[in-house]
Automatic annotation (TrEMBL):
A Pfam family recorded for this sequence: PepSY_TM
Bilayer-spanning residue ranges: 12-30, 126-147, 174-194, 321-342
UniProt protein name: Peptidase
Protein source organism: Sphingopyxis lindanitolerans
Keywords recorded for this protein, A-Z: Membrane, Transmembrane, Transmembrane helix
InterPro entries tied to this protein: PepSY-ass_TM
Keyword Ribosomal protein among record annotations: no
Keyword Transmembrane among UniProt keywords: yes
Length: 361
């Protein structure tokens, strides 16, 4: 048990600050639609085909446009993507509301990049994945260590005083209260980053190979991107295939011969951007293939639920508040763990005096 206590303290001391920042940034992102103060951000969704077609043709005709994240019921603006970090928000009529040349001009974008990539792309994802595994170890060992002192449990929102003993007692008791929510946050977050961990979680729901194949995008090849793609025909065909689905993401080809991709969200899907996908020939606009997210195997369905649960895209305000408690608890636990480990450690002299007294006794 002494070894477990040592590992727990060192894990908190070394990774606590990163976990605290993950909790804080995640909590801010949970409520981003409430603090993005832009005109038309709260407009009701206009998802009828003529309106979406008109906005798509207008926005995609802009030089450098590479794709659209369409407005939804929570956020009334389309997000237009240009090269690298440039982009724009547009009303559902197609009128540009604001533009940016770098993600640093939009706080919701750079906070998202930090929370998901640590500003380091794929390398940052690896770091976050490792931090998630450490967080999982931190939660499990914390529960085991708490069990020894469970009779002295005293729930407190904040430490009774800012002394090391009080902070440690608060850390222990807050940790056990928040453990179920922290476990859910860490598991779902790590699933999205770390594929081996995701495979372990979804394994009980079906063969991992079957799930991976269902989630992997098919390889379609077509002609070069047309000068004026027929977006009206593509969106019309998509609506015919999935009549009750919302248009979510339109992406132009990344390489020569790649198709145009359109993602939609059916009403039964939890994933905010959906996983029902259609691929069109970039030259002719002909449908190359379609995937129904609701027909995916159970393992893929479970994986698709990880993000909406983690980011509180389901459950409305009550679930956002629940996940906010999880994020703020992680922030408090991580920051206090670092502070007590590095800046409030007992002085060596006191430990020597205590050891000598015990020896003489």
């Amino acid at each position: 048990m002494s070894l477990l206590d040592t590992l727990h303290r060192w894990t908190g001391g070394l990774i606590g600050l990163l976990l605290a920042l993950m909790g804080l940034s995640g909590t801010i992102l949970l409520h981003e639609n409430s603090w993005i103060a832009l005109p038309h951000a709260n407009d009701p969704l206009r998802g009828d085909l003529p309106t979406v077609v008109a906005a798509t043709e207008r926005l995609m005709a802009m030089p450098g446009a590479q794709g659209i994240i369409y407005a939804d019921e929570r956020f009334g603006l389309h997000q237009l993507r240009f090269g690298k970090q440039a982009g724009a928000y547009a009303a559902q009529s197609g009128d540009i509301v604001t533009r940016w040349a770098s993600q640093w001009e939009r706080p919701e974008l750079w906070i998202f990049d930090f929370h998901h990539h640590l500003f380091a792309g794929d390398n940052g994802e690896w770091v976050i994945g490792i931090a998630g595994l450490c967080g999982l170890f931190f939660i499990v060992t914390g529960v085991i260590l708490w069990w020894r002192t469970r009779r002295t449990f005293r729930p407190r929102l904040l430490p009774k005083r800012m002394s090391r003993p009080s902070i440690l007692w608060h850390h222990r008791d807050l940790g056990i209260l928040a453990a179920p929510l922290l476990l859910l946050s860490v598991v779902t977050g790590t699933m999205m980053i770390f594929q081996p961990f995701a495979a372990i979680v979804i394994a009980p729901f079906g063969p991992v190979a079957e799930t991976a194949k269902a989630l992997e995008p098919p390889r379609y090849k077509g002609g070069p991107l047309a000068a004026k793609p027929d977006y009206a025909a593509m969106l019309t065909e998509a609506r015919r295939r999935f009549p009750d689905a919302e248009f979510r993401i339109l992406s132009l080809p990344r390489g020569a011969g790649d198709p145009i991709m359109l993602r939609m969200r059916q009403q039964a899907e939890w994933l905010p951007n959906g996983r029902s996908t259609l691929w069109f020939d970039a030259e002719t606009g002909k449908l190359l293939g379609a995937r129904d997210a609701l027909a995916m195997p159970p393992g893929a369905q479970v994986f698709n639920m990880a993000y909406p649960v983690h980011s509180a895209k389901v459950g409305g305000l009550p679930w956002r508040l629940v996940m906010s408690v999880s994020g703020l608890s992680l922030t408090m636990l991580g920051s206090f763990a670092v502070w007590t480990f590095w800046f409030r450690r007992p002085k060596a002299a006191k430990w020597r005096v205590k050891a000598a007294a015990l020896a003489s006794a």
